[in-house]
Protein: Aminotransferase
Amino acid sequence: MIAENMKQMVANSSAIRAMFEEGNRLAGIYGKENVYDFSLGNPNVPAPEAVKAAAFSVLEEEEPTVLHGYTTNSGYPEVRERIACHLNAQFGTAFTKENIIMTVGAAGGLNVILKSLLNPGEEVLTFAPYFAEYRAYVNNYGGILTEVSPDTETFQPKLEEFEAKLSPRTKAVLINTPNNPTGVVYSESVIKRLAEILERKQKEFSTTIYLISDEPYRELVYGGTQVPYLTKYYANTIVGYSYSKSLSLPGERIGYLVIPDEVKDSRELIMAAAVATRILGFVNAPTLQQKIVARCVEERTDISYYERNRNTLYDGLTKLGFSCVKPEGAFYLFVKSPVPDEKVFCETAKQYRILMVPGSAFGCGGYVRLAYCVSYETICNALPQFEKLAKEYLTAV
Amino acid sequence: MIAENMKQMVANSSAIRAMFEEGNRLAGIYGKENVYDFSLGNPNVPAPEAVKAAAFSVLEEEEPTVLHGYTTNSGYPEVRERIACHLNAQFGTAFTKENIIMTVGAAGGLNVILKSLLNPGEEVLTFAPYFAEYRAYVNNYGGILTEVSPDTETFQPKLEEFEAKLSPRTKAVLINTPNNPTGVVYSESVIKRLAEILERKQKEFSTTIYLISDEPYRELVYGGTQVPYLTKYYANTIVGYSYSKSLSLPGERIGYLVIPDEVKDSRELIMAAAVATRILGFVNAPTLQQKIVARCVEERTDISYYERNRNTLYDGLTKLGFSCVKPEGAFYLFVKSPVPDEKVFCETAKQYRILMVPGSAFGCGGYVRLAYCVSYETICNALPQFEKLAKEYLTAV
Structure:
């Protein structure tokens, strides 16, 4: 009796659940510490101490009916003002609280903006590999997700194919940098060319094409890598942000959308996003967390921990002969499978108690994603297992 | 450039915003304490002290990467287990954690279950007057909301009309008791007849008709009124619950769905609801709040406060000649407008600095909703203003 369009998704979900249960099964047999689970993007670095301190202060200081009460659908004005000021100081932008809409994480924000924008049959373009849920988010509102194929040399966007795939039906382009699953940061020159193409195509088609930038990993970058702030490169840019990774609060569901004044029909779109927040059932972003993040805009999680993990895992795997672009951000390695069907590779890896996600889940078969937001010990102990796995594959190849 | 189906909703939203701004304008001129704003269902009784204590304990005791980390889409198993046990103790049910899905409030839960159930064109029946957002929730998934007209004598469901409107396309029936906007609690005899009709029609059509019970006001009842627990009367019942009112936490967005084993295709539906939670962008209910409510299942807000408000406002208005069913629950009075077009009445009331919501927003013109979740002083000070309003209308009628 469930909805037809949910049946396939429930079947896929069973596959994910099966993997999860396989992890539990292995942990039951060998002990949790002997299972090398790289399948989940759940931060293992705790939230900064300042988050806890902010929670205590807010609970002590704020009047409960205000602290836990409904806010406007867009969130507390003072929280949005604080975030706008912080962005302006960082990026030289000129946002006000009107440009900020607090959301139930980045996933909530993406649903809100897609609901606000999409008419049935309109297209959203994205670059493979991409976060697996994008397709479902777009389909929720009758939209069609079109992929630009991956450049497996660099995992930067393929701009010629992109230009060719833009059409009068393209309502939005959805990008994610630093990227899940590759960890790649799109370079400024790529962003400039992307913006130039979009400007040109908007004129050619006499349409508006929104660029939606999904940025949960903005602060997770290594070695001083700069992540261009996209509203400065292309006027019709909307930013979706989340504190899930920067403050290690993924379960709390707190983030925001930025809809700049420069965006076409900005005022109407801001109102639509507020309405969408309400009618999709979010109503408002969780209020205590709104107040907490406003007090922690300068804080971030300990990135050096992820950086050490990245270095150790990347060095270890490449020494063993595995091939992978060194990520500049996020907490993922996207490793080339030694056999074309990476699902086979994932299955074999399980025999060594290593859990990874097949790249086909991200629109890029032949690769596997390893989330290195795990303990350093897990990485050190996993490497000898990867060595056995490498022997099985890489000597034979 | 916004989505076509959002344009009307943005226009309606502007009307609500205009009312909100009118309130602010009046407060600016006359002072906030001299504006009698009965328009918002935002609890004014603070969360119980136990909520704050639970928040402190949880923050002190729980490991941050677990406390703030992703949970399964359905929520922490131990939280769901605690809620299942609490329901079983209260209602003699036999739920396990598998039957409980934590949601982003009741609004989030309703969206999740409608996404899980509805195919485009399928119908959802509801009884007028009803919460204004139901239509949008159903439309989000291509469904059609069909109203059963109000029985303005009792505001109990009109069951003959209901039976006549059930059809092979009816996928679900959505009810809300204690009711927003009337405060009426559907009686046990009505529930039994409703269940009997549904059983009969399921057989006649060879379909499954789900009964979705939206219960944010379950605990807000006066004078020992009993609210039947619907899973005991009809097998295909799904309950949507929220802590927004029972613990005065509306901004925190925390509630749950109950999908009992007895429900047709229960296992598939539970999985679909978990998937819907993910792909609609909720991902999981806010984690800190999950932990807090699990420690507060026995707690509730101070209902005596609302009860005094109810009595004073009801007695005051009826003495002035206004007509209204005495509510047994929730924190609303649904008052008959002295003129057929209640919007005119609302406009006149503004001249006396009284803000109310027209009943047509709830599918029941000719009435106005007063939310009495305000300070007692507001009610006492508003009554002389209502007296002036009554003189203008009731003597002339």
The domain at 49-295 of chain A is CATH 3.40.640.10 (Aspartate Aminotransferase; domain 2). Chain A is about 45% helix and 15% strand. Chain A touches chain B through 77 residues (CB under 8 Å). The first strand of chain A starts at residue 36 and ends at 37.
